[in-house]
Amino acid sequence: MIYPIRLYGDPVLRKRARPVQDFGGLKKLAEDMLETMFAARGVGLAAPQIGLSERLFVAVEYADEPEGEERPLRDLVRRIYVVANPVITHREGQVEGLEGCLSLPGLYAEEVPRAERIRVVYQDEEGQERTLELEGYMARVFQHEVDHLEGILFFERLPKAKREAFLQEHRAELARMQKEARALLKELSQR
C-alpha cells in the first residue's frame, strides 16, 4: 500500500511522536512505508509523514546507479533500515550539506548543519534493540528522520538568517503546500 505523504502544514509533522509499543504489525507497516518512499523516490520516510504519530522511520542505502542506465530504486538497494524508538546517543563533528524532504517536495536548503558521525540505539521491526554507528550521508539521513519524530523540519536547523531567507524565498510554495495539506486532511476525514 502506498500512503499519501503528508505535506508541510499538516499538524502531524509538528508533533513529537509517541513511542512504538506494539511491534505486531510493524513489518507490514514498514513494507508499506518503503513502497511509499520508493514511489516518491526518497531515501527515508518517517511515520508522521504518512500521518502516524509513532517513533518509526525507514531508510535505505542505495548503490550508485550505473552510468546512463535508469533502474527502479528497489533494484539499487544496498541496505534497508527499519528504525523504531531511535535515540542518538553520540554525535561527533559537524558538517553542512544539502537537504530536501518528501513533505516539502521540490524545496532544498544548502548548509543544513548535522553531526558528521552518530551512534543511534533503536529497536528493529521485531522489537530487538540494536546499535548503529553511522557517518557521512547516512548519518545525515538518520538525523533528518529523527527530527521528524520530534516535529522538526530540516530548514529549522538552519541558522536564523538563513532560515528566514528560506521561508521568504519559498513563501508561495509553502502556502500552496499548506493548502494541499488542508485539502488532504479534509479528504481523509471524509473516508
- What is the subunit arrangement here? single chain
The strand count comes to 7
Q: Strand arrangement, largest sheet?
A: 1-2-3-6-7
| Secondary-structure arrangement, i.e. CATH architecture | Alpha-Beta Complex
**The CATH H-level homologous superfamily:** Peptide deformylase
Helices and strands, in N-to-C order?
A: HEEEEEEEHHH
Number of helices: 4
From the spread of the alpha carbons, the general shape counts as globular
CATH topology: Peptide Deformylase
Alpha-beta content class? alpha+beta
Radius of gyration: 16 Å
Work out the count of structural domains. Answer: 1
Task: Compute the separation of the termini in Å.
Answer: 16 Å
The CATH class is Alpha Beta
Q: What is the percent of helical residues? A: 25-40%
Give the overall pLDDT as a whole number.
94
Largest sheet: 5 strands, antiparallel
List the uncertain runs.
Answer: none
Strand content: 25-35%
